[in-house]
């Protein structure tokens, strides 16, 4: 599997985990993460983040999005 495909699969999984953690539908979670730089973060730090548990990744995404103006 190519790096790009692994990154896409990982991003989809993270969006789904974020949605579940905050009782959002997947579309809402994706838009929130996109608007507050979470998707960009996953892309830029894939090599580090994919080694962590999804719970840790969701916490990282929440903290990052808050720093960028998010309210979740």
Automatic annotation (TrEMBL):
Pfam name, any one: DUF3791
UniProt xrefs under InterPro entries: DUF3791
Protein's UniProt name: DUF3791 domain-containing protein
Organism: Butyrivibrio hungatei
Taxonomic lineage of the native organism: Bacteria, Bacillati, Bacillota, Clostridia, Lachnospirales
């Amino acid at each position: 599997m190519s790096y790009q495909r692994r990154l896409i699969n990982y991003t989809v999984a993270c969006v789904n985990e974020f949605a579940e953690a905050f009782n959002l539908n997947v579309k809402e979670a994706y838009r929130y993460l996109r608007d507050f730089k979470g998707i960009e973060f996953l892309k830029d730090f894939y090599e580090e983040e994919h080694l962590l548990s999804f719970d840790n990744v969701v916490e990282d995404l929440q903290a990052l999005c808050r720093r960028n103006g998010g309210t979740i």
